[in-house]
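Please go through this chain and its backbone structure tokens and walk me through the local backbone shapes. Keep your notes short.
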Amino acid sequence: KNLTMKGDPACLFIDVSTPEGKATGVLVDSVVSSLVLDTVYSDTVAQVLGSLSPSLLREFDDCLKEGLGLP
């Protein structure tokens, strides 16, 4: 497990021991980083690992703003 960036304001930490973390569908504690972005065609995605609830998406919006240096 590499959770070293979990405290970075540009990253969203998903704690699977919480109800919201469990609802994402990921199996282990995870970090979603806005510092490492890539685009891919949807038909090349082999497996979806999880999804974010509307409240976690709002939190990740803040992480994106931080990572991209936006106000």
User: Anything to note?
Assistant: The chain has a mean pLDDT of 94. Strands lie at 11-14, 30-33.
